[in-house]
Design goal:
two-stranded antiparallel sheet, 55% helix, 434 Repressor (Amino-terminal Domain), globular, 7% strand, alpha/beta, 17 helices
Length: 387
């Protein structure tokens, strides 16, 4: 294409491309070096973009250049239900979260097509439950079905091994587990349950022990057939249906990861726990069960081992400490990043489909978002995990 190529874009398509990327008018305007008022006018009246402008916006909106040639926006599946209890967040999603939702939707579609081509089951083998069902009973049943004992859980070397093993256990239920960077001030995870295979996505920006809890919080949503966008909070309490479901999923995840009977194995002092005895119980429990201290505190509250006033005070201290300790991770090898983001189930499906001639190497690179030179390392890692 020559430099003077002009691309007419309809106002509806331009606005759709921006909004579905989570970009603001101001952000988009900066990408093409025009005032925000000019970009807003384009979204009302349409415009003709230069090739340079179109490429800049396509890259920023994470859309193919050809998307700007559409006569109207394509059909979009609605966003998952918003279960977040964060103040002033209802219905508002940051850019990273919107892009993660789009990618998860795409991988779900690709996985479904590959599973059908490979004659693989897409339906999870669990029965649905109702919010009136006891979360502790459901958690015990699901733990037995996933086949991970407390001894196995406590024998895992650290929280990273626990995260890998819990992901593997969930993926054996024909559920994709993904992780992408998302601000934990916006969301901690989301689930997709309107189509198969089901999907659980957690924030790779979160602490790994928090990700473990989010995995099973979202698993609870899938059991309830109420998939959605979540930012689990332990102190939330409300009669709203959305928050009652959130509380059920919190109870389920807590009971699953730290069963009530397992609390008896801790060295507890006089109850209700206070001061050093509470600090020791939180530290020992978090280390033993590979969960966060906030999760342990939540479990102690519901076991009647700590007062609600002490719970609120200690939770605030933990959250303040965790906020100060937040840090971004360093660089990660492409092959490792591929498996961390896409999960073992999806990555294995893609490679199996290529080995059977169902897809091309170009498809592999596209679906896994990785260069082909990294495939040998990815395959070696998958073989090692399967051994």
């Amino acid at each position: 294409m020559g430099r003077n190529v002009k691309i007419p874009v309809s106002p509806q398509v331009l606005k759709w491309a921006r909004e579905t990327s989570g970009a603001t008018v101001e952000d988009a305007a900066k990408r093409v070096k025009v005032p925000a008022l000019t970009f807003a006018r384009w979204e009302n009246q349409g415009t003709t973009l230069s090739l340079t402008q179109a490429r800049a916006l396509a890259a920023y909106f994470k859309r193919p250049l050809a998307a700007f040639l559409l006569p109207e926006p394509p059909p979009e599946r609605p966003l998952p239900r918003d279960f977040r209890t964060l103040p002033n967040r209802q219905g508002q999603l940051e850019r990273e979260t919107r892009l993660a939702l789009r990618k998860a939707r795409r991988l779900q579609t690709v996985a479904r097509e590959l599973m059908q081509s490979l004659e693989r089951e897409t339906t999870p083998p669990f029965a649905g439950v109702k919010p009136s069902d006891d979360p502790a009973t459901v958690a015990g049943r699901e733990r037995d079905r996933l086949g991970v004992s407390l001894d196995q859980q406590q024998d895992w070397q650290d929280e990273w091994e626990a995260f890998r093993e819990w992901r593997a256990a969930i993926e054996r239920q024909n559920i994709l587990t993904l992780q992408f960077p998302m601000s934990v001030d916006d969301v901690r995870g989301f689930s997709l349950g309107d189509e198969e295979p089901y999907v659980i996505t957690v924030s790779s920006s979160d602490a790994v022990r928090a990700r473990i809890f989010t995995l099973f919080h979202e698993y609870g949503h899938l059991l309830l057939h109420s998939a959605g966008i979540c930012a689990p909070r332990f102190e939330a309490s409300s009669q709203r249906q959305e928050l009652q479901i959130e509380q059920w999923c919190n109870r389920f995840a807590g009971e699953f990861l730290v069963p009530r009977l397992a609390l008896q194995s801790l060295s507890l002092g006089r109850v209700p726990l206070e001061g050093q005895s509470l600090a020791d119980a939180l530290s020992e429990g978090a280390r033993r069960f590979k969960v966060s201290e906030a999760v342990m505190l939540f479990r102690l509250l519901h076991a009647g081992l700590v007062s609600r006033a002490r719970f609120r005070e200690t939770l605030a201290d933990i959250q303040a400490r965790d906020h100060r300790a937040r840090r971004k991770g360093g660089p990660i090898r492409p092959a490792r990043k591929c498996l961390a983001e896409n999960g073992v189930l999806f990555s294995s499906l893609v490679l199996e489909a290529r080995n059977r001639g169902v897809i091309t190497y170009a498809d592999v690179s596209d679906f896994l978002s990785v260069r082909l030179k990294h495939l040998p390392e990815i395959e070696s890692s998958l073989m090692a995990r399967a051994a």
